[in-house]
Specification:
Blueprint: H1 3-21, H2 24-47, H3 56-72, H4 77-99, H5 104-124, H6 126-129, E1 135-136, H7 149-175, H8 178-186, H9 190-195, H10 200-226, E2 228-229, H11 236-249, H12 255-274, H13 279-293, H14 299-313
Antiparallel strand pairs: 1-2
């Protein structure tokens, strides 16, 4: 097994073990993985030179899909998460057919506009969505088991970790396919790709739909983990968080957004406890340090280790 894979496996093992000694970390890590999934969707778009300030739309849609379903149908957590993904894929396809025509600031702002329309609908239709009070999400069953809230939260973290590993492996392989390679080339010269016969709009549409599905899965996870959904999940601040996390972690590899999400949630959690009202200052300072010293994001630390490992084993 390669050194990079071993290091990732070690990080996943540490993540899996820490909540056994510090149970409160399970909830923090679950939220980090949920936001990491949404940030991974942003990172995929950034690889193609596209930035979205509106993926809170899909994060909120996934969370509300879970909340609405549990109002009338007591589905298992696995089916709820699948439903959240399908909701994101469907919305992403509808929006992507329109948005894939645009680039640059227009692409970013149109995403923001869609998410703010969705936010306004959630906030204004009080009798359906609960307005700014949101909707309570009852604890669903997990793999057919009825668990109390504490046990459910612990089990949900391990389910989220397993999903993250599987999706990370799948997306790593996807990025090595011709479509994934075309995405990286899209950022440098879109016109040349068109001349080579590559359907650029279809590539963008496919990646956009995948990114929407990832964000919705993250929203569904966050909804069942917190037990309450509110319109702020679709607000522009939430979308900005995902962009921040993607840049903090780096877009050079699939693990990057998850590293960024873990750092983001841990900094915010400890800042709330020990340095109240200064967590924004700490997050801003962290981003400045990353930009100055690790312009490729936290992923660069892991990437540098991999490079050093390859150089050391080179003949």
């Amino acid at each position: 097994m390669r050194q990079g894979s071993l290091l990732l496996l070690l990080i996943a093992t540490v993540l899996a073990l820490l909540p056994l000694f510090f149970p409160w970390l399970g909830f923090v890590f679950t939220l980090a993985l949920a936001k990491g999934l949404a940030a991974l969707g942003i990172a995929l778009l950034l690889r193609g030179g596209l930035v979205s300030f509106g993926h809170g739309l899909y994060f909120g849609a996934g969370a509300y899909a879970v909340a609405f379903t549990l109002r009338w149908l007591p589905l298992d957590t696995v089916w709820l998460l699948l439903l959240a993904v399908l909701t994101g894929l469907a919305l992403g396809l509808l929006a992507g057919l329109f948005l894939s025509r645009y680039r640059g600031i227009f692409f970013a702002m149109l995403n923001l506009a869609f998410s703010m329309v969705f936010y306004a609908l959630l906030a204004k239709f009080y009798h359906v969505t609960g307005g700014t009070d949101g909707i309570r999400v009852p604890t669903p069953t997990l793999l057919g088991l009825t668990l109390d809230r504490t046990l459910f939260g612990e089990a949900l973290f391990y389910l989220a970790l397993l999903l993250t590993l599987l999706l990370g492996w799948g997306l790593t392989r996807f990025l090595r396919t011709p479509v994934g390679e075309a995405l990286a080339a899209l950022r440098t010269n879109e016109v040349r790709l068109e001349y080579l016969g590559i359907p650029v709009r279809r590539v963008i549409l496919l990646v956009y739909v995948i990114s929407a599905g990832l964000a919705s899965l993250g929203g569904g996870l966050a909804g069942v983990a917190v037990g309450h959904v509110v319109p702020e999940l679709a607000f522009w601040v939430t979308s900005g968080e995902f962009v921040y996390i993607a840049i903090l972690g780096g877009i050079g590899g699939v693990p990057g957004p998850f590293l960024g999400a873990l750092a983001y949630e841990l900094i915010r959690t400890f800042a709330f406890k020990y340095l109240a009202f200064t967590w924004q200052l700490l997050l801003g300072a962290t981003m400045l340090l990353v930009i100055f010293f690790l312009p490729g994001g936290l992923w660069t630390l892991l990437g540098e280790r991999r490079l050093r490992g390859r150089r050391a084993t080179a003949p």
